[in-house]
TrEMBL record:
<protein>
    <recommendedName>
        <fullName>5'-nucleotidase SurE</fullName>
        <ecNumber>3.1.3.5</ecNumber>
    </recommendedName>
</protein>
<keyword id="KW-0963">Cytoplasm</keyword>
<dbReference type="GO" id="GO:0046872">
    <property type="term" value="F:metal ion binding"/>
</dbReference>
<keyword id="KW-0547">Nucleotide-binding</keyword>
<comment type="similarity">
    <text>Belongs to the SurE nucleotidase family.</text>
</comment>
<dbReference type="GO" id="GO:0000166">
    <property type="term" value="F:nucleotide binding"/>
</dbReference>
<feature type="binding site">
    <location>
        <position position="9"/>
    </location>
    <ligand>
        <name>a divalent metal cation</name>
    </ligand>
</feature>
<dbReference type="GO" id="GO:0004309">
    <property type="term" value="F:exopolyphosphatase activity"/>
</dbReference>
<dbReference type="GO" id="GO:0008253">
    <property type="term" value="F:5'-nucleotidase activity"/>
</dbReference>
<dbReference type="GO" id="GO:0005737">
    <property type="term" value="C:cytoplasm"/>
</dbReference>
<dbReference type="GO" id="GO:0008254">
    <property type="term" value="F:3'-nucleotidase activity"/>
</dbReference>
<feature type="domain" description="Survival protein SurE-like phosphatase/nucleotidase">
    <location>
        <begin position="3"/>
        <end position="195"/>
    </location>
</feature>
<feature type="binding site">
    <location>
        <position position="8"/>
    </location>
    <ligand>
        <name>a divalent metal cation</name>
    </ligand>
</feature>
<feature type="binding site">
    <location>
        <position position="96"/>
    </location>
    <ligand>
        <name>a divalent metal cation</name>
    </ligand>
</feature>
<dbReference type="InterPro" id="IPR030048">
    <property type="entry name" value="SurE"/>
</dbReference>
<dbReference type="InterPro" id="IPR002828">
    <property type="entry name" value="SurE-like_Pase/nucleotidase"/>
</dbReference>
<dbReference type="Pfam" id="PF01975">
    <property type="entry name" value="SurE"/>
</dbReference>
Length: 261
């Protein structure tokens, strides 16, 4: 199997090394793992693409490239340049440092890379490691993802879910904020929502008196539906959420037609 990997934490991120290990195990001894990842951190860029300005790509080693762009840019470079003569069988993005459960999924560059692969017609998964008091001080905070990642990816691939939509399915996988031995299992879940918490901004003055803003995240342990991605993550389970790029709200569509038509 030929696998393309990317991330949003940057080419030198620890989580990308974990993902390379996972991908190498899945690809097998006769497979190939190719890396095209951002040269610098691109967290929070979602599905951003560098549409209005060009960017450079540097070869960092064998099958390893750094792009001055977003994760979605990296996937496009991988598919249409680096691997154009023999496209990958699978695209993996991550392993993100921090969760991309619930509303975080909408901001995530990690998911943006997987989403772009799905739009290009390829199987794709985004992998993220939830951080919390039970794992952030471990020698390897990524150990849940490192030890369980390959098995989860294999099981999702084996499922071969039917996809009646023209939009390709991709998968959001989040590993819980616990040690590897404390992982309780894996759950298929819907995307959740941390109610009454949201991203915000915090203004600060620079020494020159200019006003700047820092983006602040919401409480990552806020109450959330127990059967949702973040809910099962906080209960010690790996979550797998099937997604697609179609943003239509089907429950509202017929009601809106009744008003407009």
């Amino acid at each position: 199997m030929r696998i393309l990997i990317t991330n949003d934490d940057g080419i030198n991120a620890s989580g990308l090394k974990v993902l390379h290990q996972i991908a190498t195990e899945i690809a097998g001894p006769d497979g190939e793992v190719w890396t095209v990842a951002p040269a610098f951190e691109q967290s929070g860029v979602a599905h951003c693409i560098s549409y209005t300005h060009p960017f450079m790509v540097s070869e960092m080693g064998r099958r390893r490239y750094a792009a001055e762009g977003s994760p979605a840019d990296c996937v496009m470079v991988g598919l249409h340049d680096v691997m154009k003569d023999n496209r990958p069988d699978l695209v993996l993005s991550g392993v993100n440092r921090g969760n991309n459960s619930a509303e975080n999924a909408l901001y995530s560059g990690t998911l943006g890379g997987a989403l772009e692969a799905a739009l290009q017609g390829l199987p794709a998964m985004a992998l993220s490691q939830y951080y919390g008091p039970e794992n952030r001080d471990l020698d390897d905070p990524f150990e849940a993802a490192r030890q369980h990642g390959a098995d989860v990816v294999r099981r999702v691939l084996k499922a071969r879910l039917a996809n009646p939509s023209a939009y390709q399915l991709f998968y959001n996988i989040n590993f819980p904020p616990v040690s590897a031995k404390s992982v309780k299992g894996t759950r298929a879940t819907p995307q959740g929502l941390r109610e009454n918490t949201a991203f915000s901004v915090e203004p600060q003055l620079s020494p020159s008196g200019r006003r700047f803003f820092w983006i602040r995240g919401g409480d990552q342990r806020a109450p959330v539906a127990a059967n949702s991605d973040a809910g099962v993550n906080l209960d010690g389970y790996i979550s797998v959420t099937p997604m697609r790029a179609d943003l239509t709200a089907p429950d509202a569509l017929e009601a809106l037609r009744g008003v407009l038509e």
